[in-house]
Amino acid sequence: MLVVAGLFLHSLVKLITLDIGFDRSNVLLVNANVFAANIPPAERNAIYDEMEDRLRSLPSVVSVGRSFRTPVSPDDWDQTIAVDTPNAPKGDDAAAYFNFVSPGYFSTLRTPLLAGRNFTTADTRNSAPVAIVNETFVRKYFPGMNVIGKSFRKVDDRAGQPQVYLQIVGLVKDAKYGSVRETTLPQAFCPASQIPEGDNSEYYELRTGNRPSALAPLVQSAIAQVNKGVTLEFHSLAEQVDDSLVQERLLATLSTFFGALALLLAMIGLYGAISYGVSQRRSEFGVRMALGAAPASILRLVMRDVALMLFGGALAGIAISLGTVRLVQKLVFGLTVFDPLTMAGAITVLAAVALIAGYLPARRAMKVDPMIALRYE
Questions:
Q1: In this structure, which of 49, 188, 234, 277 has its CB flanked by the most CB atoms within 10 Å?
Q2: pLDDT of 366 above 80
Q3: CA of 250: how far to CAs of 8, 24, 66, 332, in Å?
Q4: Who's near 296: CB < 8 A, 6+ residues apart?
């Protein structure tokens, strides 16, 4: 139980402290739903831009980004792509995950731009299609190449659809797309201004110097000045990332509870067994002390029995653990089920509890009066 609890706790700590490619702190996510406002598709981009400008001017707002989807959310958009490089992936293996974002998106999430340029106001619906890709995209489709200036196209099997090539203008650091646990996916970002009519780029990311939720009333007021029919939903990016780890938190909490319960039962059992053994050997201790044995030698005698019991129990526990932890292999992250640190931690905790449980009866054995013990015999 202690080993399993240690694995789940260690796994959760790894997930919480993992570099996910963006800064989740102090970011308010705003879902602006324009459907209720009945805004024609051709006018939506202008409305989005105006709302973004209004949000950028709010007090305590550091920066604002806009996107088709937000990081680590259940919504995803993947599409097969084609690249003109030797031995390029094809078929089902040639996929990338997409997002439409505004120029302020990467700075708001603090995802570093590693090469090339960011999107600008010059990237419009009428300009050449461009994209910014992540490191995994480059490793998969353009290994060992300078990706800036290279092109790829989305594979569209619909009849009559033109083949549109996207030129890569920037490279950003890898970041998680749909889950903290996932292996980093190849991602491509397109300008929000080039989103097709009828689609929606309705999420805003607001980095604030204060508590994100405190900004909600100001956001509502700013959006209402643009269009009162737009409905809003609020949550923070930190909450969204935390919500994606609900299963891991639950497993860590439950396993820790049952591990602590098992530890308590082990301590009670050891204390009872050692106490009974000490009471059964009271006369022996009395004789030893009557013959000149020092109290410390009695303590060592009892603690030796505790150590032997602990050693046997630890060996049995390790053997059982090695045979059963395989069942939780898929539930832990970034660890092998035979993690030596977790195993050592479980043994250390159990040893400390066992020594405490054995020390209390051993102290009583040291105080046995030889005359009383001999009279009792």
A1: 188
A2: no
A3: 10, 21, 33, 13
A4: 366
Residue type, 308: L
DSSP state of 179: -
Question: For residue 61, what are the β-bridge partners?
Answer: 208
- pLDDT of 373 above 60: no
Q: Map out the domains of the chain as residue ranges.
A: 2-243, 246-376
Q: Which residues contact 317 (CB under 8 A, 6 or more apart)?
A: 2, 3, 346, 347, 350
pLDDT tens, position by position, 201-240: 589 999 998 889 889 999 999 999 988 888 899 999 999 9
3-class SS of residue 24: coil
Q: What pLDDT score does 200 carry?
A: 58
User: Distance between CA atoms of 67 and 309, rounded to whole angstroms?
Assistant: 61
Place of tokens 């201004």: 193
Burial category of 152 from C-beta neighbours within 10 Å (exposed 0-12, middle 13-18, buried 19 and up): buried
Is 323 in a helix, a strand, or coil? Answer: helix
In the chain, % of residues over pLDDT 90: 40
Do residues 163 and 142 touch, judged by C-beta distance below 8 A? no
Stated length of the chain: 377
Q: At what angle do helices 340-366 and 246-280 cross, to 10 degrees?
A: 30
Q: CA 65 to CA 29: how far, in whole Å?
A: 10
Q: Which amino acid is at 60?
A: S
Mean pLDDT for 165-182 is 93
pTM score: 0.79
